[in-house]
Amino acid sequence: MNHRNGTRRIHLGGIPIGGGAPVVIQSMTNTPTHDVEKTLAQVNELVAAGCELVRVAVPDLRAVEALPDILRTARCPIIADIHFSEQLALASIYAGVAGLRLNPGNLRDSGAIHRVASAAAEAGIPIRVGVNAGSLDPDLLKKHGGPTPEALVESALGEIRLLEEAGLDQIKVSAKVSSVQGTLATYRLLAERTDRPIHLGVTEAGWHDAGVIKSALGIGVLLLEGIGDTIRVSLTGDPVVEVRAAWDILRACGLRRRGIEIIACPTCGRCNYDLVGLLREVENRLAGIVIPLQVAVMGCVVNGPGEAAHADVGVAGGMDKGDLFVNGEIVERGVPADELADRLERLVREIVAQREEK
Ligand code: SF4
Q: In CATH terms, is domain 260-357 a member of 1.10.530.10?
């Protein structure tokens, strides 16, 4: 069964999440939130990369005080990330955030949770129950002998109940661990036990290729099983990389597409031109395009167009030259290598203009 299609629909800053809505991409700033200029700059970079929701840490009053300025200018809904403090949660709601993330592991007073949930219900904003293996309630750790899937899910369901009792219906939930196997087991169990929309992520995935691979496996497998309504790829470093990886995961799962998808052959002894140089050039030139399009950069005319027949447009190299093709058909032959990037870009932009007109 596809869990995603059966989850309850919520809205965050007008964006639908759950109930079969397109999987939403979110990320988190890593600037000091009280530094409005830096935080806004990063929010806008994330939005430009295709991020749809941005979470900011609210660790102190300085961060709360910065929220109105951030909210006024940000080009996407902003979620406040709260740990420990009822006061910071309430103040963030009153500042006008579009959503809240609460960690049941460190805000455990049921009275406080009730007051925050009531305020969120009154403001009409959702709360994410954000369980994390690294900060699980000590009582649950003791009961289950560690941060097991059962322990994480019990924490999440207990917090959801508290929010519901306070009259809040706009709820989503995550339960993050840092291993792929733990992520799969935990989210599968969570999906069995709740119809609340699910936020997927592998926490502390690391960075570079290893972090992306870990996230792609954990998030991707679950998405393919029909679990997950919104995703965050957690990588150390520039969060814009997270957003690019998130789009790559959604595209690879066949769920959503955005911008240029590059198809390139691995090259072999038949390749007689600088494919890697051309690939880099093409990627840079086409980076700002939002309309989904497949562009192939292939090493030879023998197999290139055939191997990339499903691409919208492409190039297949020869001896210091190349052929251009559209939908698998060659449209220009023997183009000198130093003109390939120009001609390919022109073809792509023509197709983009045609699709924009439609
Ligand atoms: S497209 Fe040509 S150069 Fe590239 S891997 Fe295939 S056969 Fe080799």
A: no
Ligand 1 within 6 A of CB of 343: no
pLDDT class for 248, splitting at 50, 70, 90? very high
Alpha helix (H) residue ranges in the chain: 3-6, 36-48, 61-73, 86-95, 110-123, 138-144, 149-165, 180-193, 208-224, 239-252, 275-285, 304-307, 340-357
Residue 305 has pLDDT above 80, yes or no: no
Nearest-angstrom CA–CA distance, 5 and 250: 16
Q: Is 300 in the pocket of ligand 1 (CB under 6 A)?
A: yes
Fold of the CATH domain 3-252: TIM Barrel (3.20.20)
User: What are the boundaries of each domain within the chain?
Assistant: 3-252, 260-357
Report field, pTM of the whole predicted structure over 0.85 = yes
3-class DSSP state of 327: coil
**Whether residue 70 has pLDDT greater than 80:** yes
Residue to mutate, 262, 263, 271, 330, ligand 1, most ligand atoms under 8 Å from C-beta: 271
Residue with tokens 């109930």: 19
Q: Which residue blocks in 194-339 are alpha helix, DSSP H? A: 208-224, 239-252, 275-285, 304-307
Pairing of strands 313-317, 321-326: antiparallel
Is the per-residue pLDDT at 1 higher than 80? no
